[in-house]
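Blinded run. Sample ID left blank on purpose so nobody reads anything into the name before looking at the predicted structure. Input follows.
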Amino acid sequence: MSVAATASAPVGREPEADDGRHWPEYAIEAGLLGLFMVSACACTALVEHPASALRAVLPTPLARRALVGAAMGLTAVALIYSPWGQRSGAHFNPAVTVGFLRLGRIAPGDAAGYVLAQCAGGALGVLLSATLLSRWISHPAVAYAVTVPGPHGAAAAFAAELTISFLTMTVVLAAAGGRLASLTGLLCGALVALYITFEAPLSGMSMNPARTFASAVVAGEWRGFWVYLTAPVLGMTLAAESFARVRGAHAVPCAKLQHESSRVRCIFCRERQAAAEAALVGVRGAGPA
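Blinded prediction complete.
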């Protein structure tokens, strides 16, 4: 935990210690994306399945996408502000994790743990949905909520995924270090809702390699998978690089999307404090005897 965070903790309430074992955060990341995928599968089934009453009252694709977008945006907000989200940082997206890795806000080992957990958790979420919803999500109209390139092809899908990923990471980084830090989760939820409503016809709106992997591995649908494996990571890394060049990596205080409570353990602040302490030791060691 950083010195500043420790100092801001309320009297009588000690911040949770970091014992160096970060597997709870990895497990949380798996759980967060798993829950997100359960919500995605359920919402898609309720809106797109031909037997659904909602499908009958929402005849236009735009209206159905708007409803799914609102539901998934609210899901993202709930997960980001949840106790789990505040503990792990609520990445539940390898592209977000890689972006923070570029900025030096997450250790490489933790980044690898996050990415593996996100992929596993997402797949388990789709498997759970398949068990609970059975024929509903296996129907071609639902197709396990897979994301594949739209009628304009893989190139258009790549460009769209690159663009929305770049914009999302830029918003996250700009908000995180300023007065809008407490609204980061709401901004992310709003973007998710807008993207699903208006961008989904181009790429299905993934912005998340683990999210696409989760549906693809269960559905056996790998069409255009390279788009979702590369474009989100490239877009968010470019956003992190651009932000670092314009404002400096120091302008991003932490790799958490929501970091308001000093009582919640933060493995990212600990990494920064350890690096600063190591640098200080090095400076002292280089001084006169």
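Unblinding after everyone has recorded impressions. Residues 1-17 have pLDDT under 50 and may be disordered.
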